[in-house]
Specification:
Blueprint (H helix, E strand, L loop, with lengths): L2 H11 L3 E7 H6 L11 E4 L2 E9 L2 E7 L5 H11 L2 H8 L3 H18 L21 E9 L8 H11 L4 E7 L2 E7 L12 H27 L2 E6 L5 H22 L5 E2 L5 H7 L3 H11 L9 H12 L4 H8 L3 H15 L6 H17 L3
Parallel strand pairs: 8-9
Antiparallel strand pairs: 1-4, 2-3, 3-4, 5-7, 5-8, 6-7
Helix pairs in contact: 5-8, 10-14, 11-12, 12-13
Pfam families: HTH_30
Protein name: PucR family transcriptional regulator
Keywords: Coiled coil
């Protein structure tokens, strides 16, 4: 904050104003919230603090030499907002204002590493977050800088999912969409839990695909959608957003061209991403006898389809629209060139890892 603005604030306050950095411990010891947000205030000694920004365990705040009255606090909170935010806030509905406050709290909690934080009682939307809801994270990558109107987004999402929906802006061009878990009511009930979960995940994937298609048709540009299993938002909202955000990151890193991302489909990718780059590079150098092996589009498309079809030769041939013998010829050729037979479990695991790592390293 520049000296000119501090001088203006001091004149308004009728006393000295300075920028200070305080730890969360000092903030809470003064009576502040465990999850502080920009604009929160506390009384400290004979003066007052107003949080300007929160980064991890530290807060940047304004220290006023005197205790502020409630009216003065609201005035300074408004003055500290960026002018664009003040202008936009005038047109916010109560629902949008509450959703944006909740989104800011979620982002602050993720930034501080408090992924298990539960939603505080002070949020107006809290009473709508006790039921089972399906979380969708949508990230837009439009070429222009226009901001999509909250009301129009909410209206379109409601038309696709249901009226019982919450739209929560998290970051710029990133929205959390919470739909009722009743959307899964059409999934047939199966006695075996494993089969039921498989069908639930398939239904969730279909919903995410439909949401992606609807968004791109309505507003154009590229966007990514991740979906998770139903949650109780009051208990795990922060952790869910962090997980879905990681899912989109891994999907974009290991599977270029895909726009719909599923957490249960990137377990191996999550593991590989945690391995040091030097280790990954050494593994590729040791395993790939032919550096140009994965540069052949036919090899990559064949392996992608083979693994997508759970290593089923007949189903892979159908997906590729080729004769079964043609597929077997390609797999035998790969075995001759690498010494690895993807029809064998152990070799299939190695080739799958090599293919994923190659897709990452080739773009560097």
């Amino acid at each position: 904050m520049n000296k000119s603005k501090l001088h203006q604030l001091a004149e308004l306050a009728g006393g000295p104003v300075e920028v200070v950095v305080v730890g969360r411990g000092e903030w809470t010891a003064s009576g502040g919230s465990d999850q502080p947000e920009a604009g929160d205030s506390v009384t400290q000694g004979a003066g007052s603090l107003i949080a300007v920004s929160v980064e991890g365990e530290e807060l940047q705040a304004l220290r006023f030499a005197k205790a502020l009255t409630p009216l003065e606090y609201e005035l300074f909170k408004w003055v500290l907002q960026p002018s664009a935010s003040r202008t936009a806030a005038i047109g916010f509905t109560d629902t949008e204002r509450s959703a944006r406050r909740l989104g800011e709290w979620v982002e602050t909690s993720i930034g501080s590493g408090d992924l298990r934080a539960e939603i505080p009682d002070r949020f107006e939307l809290g009473n709508r977050l006790f039921d089972g809801m399906i979380p969708f994270l949508l990230i837009s990558e439009q070429a222009d800088d226009r901001e999509l109107p909250y009301g129009e987004l909410e209206k379109v999402f409601r038309s696709f999912l249901s009226d019982d929906l919450l739209l929560i802006p998290i970051r710029e061009r990133e929205w959390l969409v919470l739909g009722s878990d009743r959307l899964l009511a059409e999934v047939e009930s199966i006695e075996e839990d494993i089969i039921e979960m498989d069908e639930t995940k398939e239904a969730l994937a279909q919903l995410a695909t439909g949401l992606h298609q609807m968004f791109t048709e309505e507003w154009g540009g590229e966007c990514h959608v991740a979906v998770g299993v139903p949650i109780i938002p009051t208990e795990s909202l922060v952790q869910t957003v962090a997980s879905l955000r990681e899912t989109v990151y891994l999907g974009r890193k290991f599977h270029m061209g895909m726009q719909v991302h599923l957490p249960w489909m990137v377990h191996l990718e999550r593991l590989l991403n945690g391995i040091p780059e030097a280790t990954r590079t050494r593994f590729m150098e040791e395993m790939v006898g032919r550096p140009d092996l994965f540069t052949e589009p036919e090899t990559i498309s064949t392996l992608d389809a083979f693994f997508a079809m759970d290593c089923n030769v007949s189903e892979t041939a159908k997906r590729l629209y080729i004769h079964r013998n043609t597929l077997l010829y390609r797999l035998d050729k790969l075995k001759q060139e690498t010494g690895l037979d993807v029809r064998s479990f152990n070799d299939a695991v190695l080739v799958r890892i090599m293919l994923l790592l190659y897709k990452v390293t080739k773009r560097k």
